[in-house]
Amino acid sequence: MSENNEKRKKASGPFFFVPGENNKFRFVDNGDGLNPRYVDRAELQSVIAAENPAHNKLLHGFVTNYRDFKSAKRAVELRSFPVVVRNFSFKGRLPKCGGAVLMTGAAALRVRTKILKDMGEEEANHLLMAESEAARSLGLSTIPSISPEEFTAYAELPFVVECRNFYNYYHFTTESLIYLQMYRDFGMSGPIHFVTGGAGELKPYIERAVEDFYPDLFDRIQFLTGSTSYKEAIIPFTTNHLYHFSTAAMLADIEEEAGFSNKLKNGDLRPATIDNYRNIFRNSRDEYIRLHRDAVLTRTFHDESAKLVYVSRKPGAARDRAIVGEDLLLEMLGRYGFKTVLFEEMTPIQQASLVNSADVLISAHGAGFANMLYGKPGAHFIELSHLQTARHRFGDFNMHASASGVFYTHFFADHSIGEDDAVPNLHHEGHAGIALSQLAIDRLELMIVNLTDKESTKTFFTRVGALRKRQDHAAVISLITSDRLRSSACPNALTTLAETYVHAGDIPSAINTYVHLLKIVPYRADLWVAVAKLAAASGDDSAVAWAEAEAEVYKRARWMRWCRTETGAISIMG
């Protein structure tokens, strides 16, 4: 730590506030205590349809790494509660209690970002690690609390909720709006202050979300930008970052109970590293995500026309993250009766109602996917994205999928910008648009067929099976190749077709079919072996070497073969 910061610390005390160290921070204890619950994890699936060979390989590695090192068997539902704070302020994006920075919720990540920028990475991380370790060394077993009955004397204090900004629907809904249900649950009656240090105007749809979902509270709310301070106030507090500042004496270990995929032992996530913070974030949710969802669904209505939904974007919206190939996508979706909507033209309650009515919803990655929170259990939400999104935004909506119980599929296609294998730089080039190839659209169509018309799939393969039993190779080949969709995108049909070509003695067609098939299932080691054997028999040594090299590249992703779902997507957690 620099000499200047060392002097500052000695003069003013710890940089970070430690809950439990004094009476400036008292939580309302309704009898549930501090410890988390363990709930069903998000049902995450993936389809890797990127045609760029380098990106395709990287995406298979990315999903495999997530499964092996960054996931958990159960989601951690973190407790949240109102806290009465004294000498609370919000200045320069730093929430402070008694002059020390308070780490809670999503604000904690913004605090990290700010101090990294202000101090530099090494000094900021040293400060955070040193002070969190010092807090744990105190061995505190509890936080000062007040009972719900005692809390009535404080109910008229301002309820202060920090916001990233007043224009991003995802951040506002997920990190701030949800706490209006806390205000209701604990019988508060004072003014409600949404505060932000972010730039940008208050967007009408943010106000409308409050009015639609919490009409009884709308008149009590003020949106405040800039610095604020309170002698005494109430804030919502979630225990995600408290984990790094406490021991099991206060907050129980979560690693073994949640079953983290990298076999973490209890206490391994206690150090306040950014990797540990993100590991918890990806595999947890605030309990008020669920409680907010429950409250909103009491106000939604059923939309019978919204069983199959595609959410598009207005031209020019969201930094013009256009979808290349959307005209072909819309044509395909239209054949199956999908309803195309624009969230920009709908009120928040209309969006929530539509989402809760949908059996299948498809859309590009974006803030509107926060509405997945209102999906009905068992529905399928398919998010169109790419490698850039995977690297920077994967996991942002896990909590929404976990709370709603939907199947959440990451459908990875290609970037709409960039001429080489480089991944577009998010910070310099912004969010890249999505490019859908014809094969990607075919694979998406097959998913839809598998979800909405299972009988046709059953009938098709019954016919194929009967012809194979009679060893009528010509008829099998004719049946499969005459089916445009399955001969393009169905692994089972293509495997049968390749094998039938071999039986018929048409080796070049067999090899071509296997090569096309391996664009869809490159993790199938047995198929690479088949290509190598056929190429060797044909005397094509270069093809043999290519097949063996590609098989090695995809070796770590072989688990995917055993985790295919009935839709064709891969269940990431098996």
TrEMBL record:
<keyword id="KW-0808">Transferase</keyword>
<keyword id="KW-0802">TPR repeat</keyword>
<dbReference type="Pfam" id="PF04577">
    <property type="entry name" value="Glyco_transf_61"/>
</dbReference>
<dbReference type="InterPro" id="IPR011990">
    <property type="entry name" value="TPR-like_helical_dom_sf"/>
</dbReference>
<dbReference type="InterPro" id="IPR049625">
    <property type="entry name" value="Glyco_transf_61_cat"/>
</dbReference>
<keyword id="KW-0325">Glycoprotein</keyword>
<feature type="repeat" description="TPR">
    <location>
        <begin position="491"/>
        <end position="524"/>
    </location>
</feature>
<feature type="domain" description="Glycosyltransferase 61 catalytic">
    <location>
        <begin position="169"/>
        <end position="381"/>
    </location>
</feature>
<protein>
    <recommendedName>
        <fullName>Glycosyltransferase 61 catalytic domain-containing protein</fullName>
    </recommendedName>
</protein>
<keyword id="KW-0328">Glycosyltransferase</keyword>
<dbReference type="InterPro" id="IPR007657">
    <property type="entry name" value="Glycosyltransferase_61"/>
</dbReference>
<dbReference type="InterPro" id="IPR019734">
    <property type="entry name" value="TPR_rpt"/>
</dbReference>
<dbReference type="GO" id="GO:0016757">
    <property type="term" value="F:glycosyltransferase activity"/>
</dbReference>
